[in-house]
């Protein structure tokens, strides 16, 4: 019985760490978020953080998973008559959380290595995003896409990811507007 209580406390502590890390990164940005700062917020040592996550990369990967859980990435894109609406909503939301966008972009580059803790996260997340956008394009009879839905979904993902990098360098870049115009150009409304 005591083991179950210890396990539950461990799960609760892990969740507390993730919530605190989300807050610190969202507020201060990836570059300014240290293990020490996150640990202090939770009331543990940096070594205790690594007890729960193994490495800073694993912690930050789980922070992205938690962000997806909070933001409800999939529900925004699922079952929409117009997939443009869901994708643009996600992009607009990302502009409100620059620290998390920076974390996402930096980990995405590192996750190219199949041994990186975030590698499977990015593969799975990318597939979910593309599948949701492609399914929306399949369902949307009001548009006439120039590309098949799967290719279009991949192009939109590539553009959105690239625009995030441009936006981090120049915050005046209107990511949502550019993607909206691209969708309208590649999948215009039927007359």
UniProtKB/TrEMBL annotation:
<dbReference type="InterPro" id="IPR036271">
    <property type="entry name" value="Tet_transcr_reg_TetR-rel_C_sf"/>
</dbReference>
<keyword id="KW-0238">DNA-binding</keyword>
<dbReference type="Pfam" id="PF13977">
    <property type="entry name" value="TetR_C_6"/>
</dbReference>
<keyword id="KW-0678">Repressor</keyword>
<dbReference type="InterPro" id="IPR050109">
    <property type="entry name" value="HTH-type_TetR-like_transc_reg"/>
</dbReference>
<dbReference type="GO" id="GO:0000976">
    <property type="term" value="F:transcription cis-regulatory region binding"/>
</dbReference>
<keyword id="KW-0805">Transcription regulation</keyword>
<protein>
    <submittedName>
        <fullName>AcrR family transcriptional regulator</fullName>
    </submittedName>
</protein>
<dbReference type="InterPro" id="IPR009057">
    <property type="entry name" value="Homeodomain-like_sf"/>
</dbReference>
<feature type="domain" description="HTH tetR-type">
    <location>
        <begin position="11"/>
        <end position="71"/>
    </location>
</feature>
<dbReference type="GO" id="GO:0003700">
    <property type="term" value="F:DNA-binding transcription factor activity"/>
</dbReference>
<dbReference type="Pfam" id="PF00440">
    <property type="entry name" value="TetR_N"/>
</dbReference>
<feature type="DNA-binding region" description="H-T-H motif">
    <location>
        <begin position="34"/>
        <end position="53"/>
    </location>
</feature>
<dbReference type="InterPro" id="IPR039538">
    <property type="entry name" value="BetI_C"/>
</dbReference>
<keyword id="KW-0804">Transcription</keyword>
<dbReference type="InterPro" id="IPR001647">
    <property type="entry name" value="HTH_TetR"/>
</dbReference>
């Amino acid at each position: 019985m005591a083991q179950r209580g210890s396990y539950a406390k461990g799960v609760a502590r892990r969740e507390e760490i993730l919530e605190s890390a989300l807050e610190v990164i969202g507020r201060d940005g990836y570059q300014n978020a240290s293990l020490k700062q996150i640990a202090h917020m939770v009331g543990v040592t940096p070594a205790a953080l690594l007890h729960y996550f193994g490495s800073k990369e694993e912690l930050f990967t789980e922070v992205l998973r938690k962000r997806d859980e909070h933001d409800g990435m999939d529900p925004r894109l699922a079952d929409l008559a117009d997939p443009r609406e869901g994708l643009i909503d996600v992009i607009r939301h990302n502009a409100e959380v620059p620290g998390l966008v920076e974390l996402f972009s930096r980990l995405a580059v590192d996750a190219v290595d199949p041994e990186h803790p975030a590698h499977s996260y990015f593969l799975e997340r990318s597939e979910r995003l593309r599948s949701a956008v492609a399914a929306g394009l399949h369902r949307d009879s009001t548009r006439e896409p120039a590309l098949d839905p799967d290719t279009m979904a991949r192009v939109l993902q590539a553009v959105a990811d690239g625009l995030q990098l441009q936006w981090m360098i120049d915050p005046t870049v209107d990511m949502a507007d550019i993607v909206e115009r691209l969708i309208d150009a590649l999948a215009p409304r039927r007359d």
